[in-house]
Model the fold of this input.
Amino acid sequence: MLGDLIYEGKYRITNSRVLNTEETKIEYNFTEEGKFKDIEITLIGTFWTVSVGTDVAYGEGQHIATTKDGRETVTFSGYGIARLKGESKDTSFNGSFFYKTSSNGKLAFLNNMVGIFEAEEDESGNGVVKVWEWK
Done:
């Protein structure tokens, strides 16, 4: 069951590289600013996508989020599907995140949580993401 909204953020793709031309596998790096509930974080991440059809890609990623004071971190893996939106180069993403933290503080609620996300990215690599708890 879909639960409460737990995260909102804005990201920017900072770099990309080709991993495999046979399967059109591309890696992307990004930075992000956002909030887990009311906790401000900065985030860095890497994900890759591989084409699975016309205008559709499967992707996996690894992420590290740190509180603004640098005292707490949460790591998470993500898995999802990307779809190009019409004639534009805008992309929508849907998938899941699996969170892990050893924090006993503000981010402790995320330990072993599963989140369901949706993201929208424009053709210049700027995007927004929202995550809901999966209960």
